[in-house]
Amino acid sequence: MELTESHTLPVPQERAWEALNDTAILKVCIPGCESIEADGENTYAVALTAAVGPVKARFKGRMQLADIDAPRSYTIQFEGQGGAAGFGKGDARVTLEPAGENATTLHYTASAQVGGKLAQIGSRLVDGAARKIAAEFFKRFGEQLGAGDQDDGGDDGVIEAVAAQDETHTAEGSDAAGGEEPQKRKRSWTAWISKS
């Protein structure tokens, strides 16, 4: 699987770089992320829950930053195990370029391999899931950066607000008792598949 995209962030390059290296911000922005903890120099232990088609699993893995050229670029190398669901591994090259005084263009090229049940689902569903997760990450990341600039209280207030919003959404989803939530997911998967 390969994914190449660009996104414009509403902050200067230095601020974008700081945010990309802030584990508290990344934890809030990565869909399904439970924890990101330092595990050596430029290495992090990550735990997250992800759903790909009918397979939903909790993944534990490592993420390492390499080829660091602050504040312009780095490569993220990642690998994770999801038990019976299988595994995922790959890398992503992330580049930041100024796009005016208060904007930055982020380019990334990611490639990944999956095995186990995930590999049996089919590349179209896996690609669709990856695109959906990436889109949600950049939506949240852009909101974090935009809100962080408007809020004089710093990032902590923004992070708490987004975390509270996520908890509310999770509670609403669990109240659906399996009726409403699966239908919503099914519609969104269908939309993603038809776009691919």
TrEMBL record:
Upper lineage ranks? Bacteria, Pseudomonadati, Pseudomonadota, Betaproteobacteria, Burkholderiales
CDD domains hit by this protein: CoxG (cd05018)
Write the protein's name: Carbon monoxide dehydrogenase subunit G
Q: Which SUPFAM superfamilies does its entry note?
A: Bet v1-like
| Stretches for region Disordered | 166-196
